[in-house]
Fold this sequence. Notes:
The protein has helices spanning about 20-25, 145-150, 155-160, 315-325, 345-355, 370-375, and strands spanning about 5, 10, 30-35, 35, 45, 50-60, 65-70, 85-95, 95-100, 105-110, 115-120, 125-130, 135-145, 180-185, 190-195, 195-200, 205-210, 215-225, 230-235, 250-255, 260-265, 270-275, 280, 290-295, 300-305. It is mainly β.
Amino acid sequence: MPEGNKVGNQELRYLLDPYLDWAAGEGVPIHEDFCVDLHSLETAPWARTETNGAFVHLKGRGDFISVFLYELTPGAKSAPCRHLFEEVFLVLSGHGSTQIETHDGVTHSFEWGPNSLFAIPLNTPYRLFNGSGTEPARLAATNDLPVTMNLFHRHSFIFANETRFPEREGPGDPGWFAGEGEFVPAQRGRKMWETNFVPDLNAFELTKWNRRGAGSANMQFCLADGVTHTHCSEMSVGTYKKAHRHPPDFHVFIVSGHGYSLFWYEGDAEYTRIDWAHGSVFAPPDRMFHQHFTVSGEPVRYVATAMGSTRYPFTAEKRALKLGVDVSVKEGGFQIEYEDQDPAIHALYLEELAKHGIACRMGEYMDESVLLEAPA
């Protein structure tokens, strides 16, 4: 009988996962959970990057993307690097800079701090620098290496490929590496900002999108003309979003405030609750309903990353999601309207607000009695 992937002395090459095999060989911790605190995760020296690093494989990450965690010790810099997969960086803590070299040989450098967001244009040489001589810097990078590695399974093709993609670098304006960009209008809340760098997500102006929830605001990002989806959402004080569901791989990173989320599958009798704050990240599994609630005295902002951007949805399923994310499930969409949610959800929210001394503001946007009287 076969044992493992061998019959006798013969290795059987089937059911392979090149990405997971590669990750296991990198020698850094691999963290797997439903939700994690990126500030506290263990890292270890990562020879490839000359930083301390870790991999974050959340339960709902799906097949296409994962998260790398980079930690730069005081005064450190990463190894020169280029690769044929996308990375979208979120700065968790610390201050520093990134240096990239565009296809014309010009070097661009931009400085970042907590809650900065940036993308490395595909296969562009870059390095990360910690600007402090006393404090470490920690960054989380959403990447599509899983699908890239599993598609090509040749390391040299991914990490030593000299093909350049000038169109990914922006329109030639160095301001795109300094926080400037271009506003791209769209219908029904999918307004988009195209750039390579957002200096501070908490200072960035979002646009109202009340169809997604009371006092909700949002901005879609197109970073380095990539296929990686990124958007920033805000929940105002004393409010919460409408429940929704979608395909896997949406990673939700909290960048301000604190609160909790409820998770359930259709037909479940109970909810799973996760409490979160700055540095938390979670990824709801495939088609699992989830709903986000703020209980802090400041607005909550989060940034969500996934495979399939607003410009390049990547799959028909993601295209349908982008068209129906604010449409009721009763109409074939992905969202539960307030009047259709379980009354226990709002009752729990009122209890949580009272614990934190926060007033509920849902009544400013709708008849709040509906939230307590709606059928389960």
